[in-house]
């Protein structure tokens, strides 16, 4: 048995071998999203507005959706149909989805009217829009996975819709197994991954300032990061490295 | 009143034993329930813009 290699000095360990892929990846990740941007101490003053609350409200409701969905998945259809606790969690799941869409739409309207794609934030806007589009089939597959007459009705109506637009061969909404798999695995994973990317991009570029603030601060107009307290924001700047 | 009886009272207040009421205008065809939700979203959106956020004025002063 050979002796372990000598530990390099701490400085060298931090820097690492520049040829290592992990070192390259780490450097790129830290350059794209330094810790002070990822977990900032505070937010710019303009964020103190109710219209900025709906993004985090969407995330909060999504957490409840996923937590209640995990419980329903563990217990199964007989539990959510025939027990009072099952009814309760079934309702929590339904109403948290309703709330998720409600606050997500208000968030979407707010960001649309403040042109939140300004200042190099196009990817923030695009990922948010895709989350909305992916969340729709995530909810639809839930409605057809209920295992009741509602589910039968919705699935046959939706099957007609799929057939009419030419994709009925790929999605059989009357197939419970297929729809349930989409609902509890594929689509939730897609939503969570996209929401994570969306939040990381928001952290990278900063919360979009109001349009009138951009006009008052022409030097920062077009998308510098947070333009107010608690600390001067770094310019979002076109970064040389490719990003997601 | 038992739990079952109380649910019957609530059920009587919201009688769903009929075809959905809809709003029709040209090609637009929406259930009243959906129109109510859309209206609520518009109200919440307007309130979010109009209502002052607690502590916002203090933060603005502090940042000057």
Keywords:
heterodimer; A: about 240 residues; mainly alpha; about 65% helix; disordered N terminus; B: about 60 residues; alpha+beta; two-stranded antiparallel sheet; 3 helices; about 60% helix; elongated
Task: Give me the secondary-structure topology.
The complex is a heterodimer of chains A (244) and B (64).
Chain A: H1 10-15, H2 21-32, H3 35-38, H4 54-75, H5 77-82, H6 84-113, H7 122-143, H8 149-164, H9 176-205, H10 211-216
Helix pairs in contact in A: 4-6, 6-7, 7-9
Chain B: H1 3-13, E1 22-25, E2 28-31, H2 32-50, H3 56-63
Antiparallel strand pairs in B: 1-2
Describe this structure in words.
The complex is a heterodimer of chains A (244) and B (64). Chain A has helices at residues 10-15, 21-32, 35-38, 54-75, 77-82, 84-113, 122-143, 149-164, 176-205, 211-216. Chain A is mainly α and 244 residues long. Among the domains of chain A are: 50-114; 118-209, no CATH class. In chain A, α7 (122-143) runs antiparallel to α9. The longest helix of chain A is centred in the middle third of the chain and has 30 residues, at 84-113. Chain A is globular and about 55 Å long. The two termini of chain A are 43 Å apart. Chain B is of the alpha+beta class and 64 residues long. Chain B has a domain at 20-52. Chain B has three helices and two strands. In chain B, strands 1-2 form a two-stranded antiparallel sheet. Chain B is elongated. The mean pLDDT of chain B is 84.
- Beta-strand residue percentage of chain B: 5-15%
Indicate the multimeric state: heterodimer
Number of strands of chain A: 0
Q: N-to-C terminal Cα separation of chain A, in Å?
A: 43 Å
Rg of chain B is 21 Å
Write out the strand line-up for the largest beta sheet of chain B, numbering strands in chain order.
1-2
- The helix count of chain B comes to 3
N- and C-termini, Cα separation of chain B: 60 Å
What is the helix fraction of residues of chain A, given as a range?
Answer: 55-70%
Count of individual helical segments of chain A: 10
The structural class of chain B is alpha+beta
Protein structure class of chain A: mainly alpha
Strand content of chain A: under 5%
> pLDDT below 50 for ≥5 consecutive residues: which ranges of chain B?
none
Q: Which consecutive residue ranges of chain A, at least 5 long each, have pLDDT under 50? A: 1-13, 220-244
- Biggest β-sheet of chain B, characterized? 2 strands, antiparallel
Radius of gyration of chain A: 23 Å
Helix content of chain B: 55-70%
On the 0 to 100 scale, the average pLDDT of chain A is 86
- Dominant shape of chain B: elongated
């Amino acid at each position: 048995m050979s002796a372990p290699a000598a530990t390099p000095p701490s400085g060298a360990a931090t820097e690492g071998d520049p040829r290592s892929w992990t070192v390259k990846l780490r450097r790129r990740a830290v350059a794209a999203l330094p810790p002070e941007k990822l977990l900032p101490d505070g937010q710019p003053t303009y964020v103190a507005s109710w219209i900025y609350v709906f993004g985090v409200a969407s995330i909060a409701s999504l957490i409840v959706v996923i937590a209640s969905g995990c419980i329903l998945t563990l217990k199964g259809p007989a539990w959510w149909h025939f027990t009072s606790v099952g009814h309760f969690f079934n309702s929590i799941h339904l109403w948290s989805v309703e709330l998720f869409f409600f606050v997500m739409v208000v968030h979407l309207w707010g960001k649309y009217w403040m042109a939140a794609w300004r200042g190099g934030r196009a990817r923030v806007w695009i990922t948010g829009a895709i989350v909305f589009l992916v969340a729709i089939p995530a909810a639809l597959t839930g409605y057809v996975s209920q295992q009741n007459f509602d589910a039968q009705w919705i699935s046959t109506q939706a099957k007609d819709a799929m057939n009419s637009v030419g994709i009925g061969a790929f999605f059989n909404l009357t197939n419970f197994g297929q729809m349930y798999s989409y609902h509890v695995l594929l689509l939730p994973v897609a939503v969570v991954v996209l929401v994570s990317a969306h939040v990381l991009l928001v952290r990278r570029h900063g919360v979009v300032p109001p349009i009138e603030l951009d006009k008052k601060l022409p030097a920062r107009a077009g998308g510098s990061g947070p333009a107010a307290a608690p600390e001067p924001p770094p310019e979002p700047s076109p970064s040389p490295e490719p990003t997601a | 009143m038992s739990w079952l009886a109380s649910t019957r009272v609530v059920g009587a207040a919201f009688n769903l034993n009929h075809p959905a009421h809809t709003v029709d205008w040209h090609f637009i065809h929406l259930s009243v329930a959906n129109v109510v939700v859309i209206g609520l979203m518009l109200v919440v959106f307007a309130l979010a813009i109009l209502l002052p956020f607690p502590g916002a004025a203090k933060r603005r002063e502090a940042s000057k």
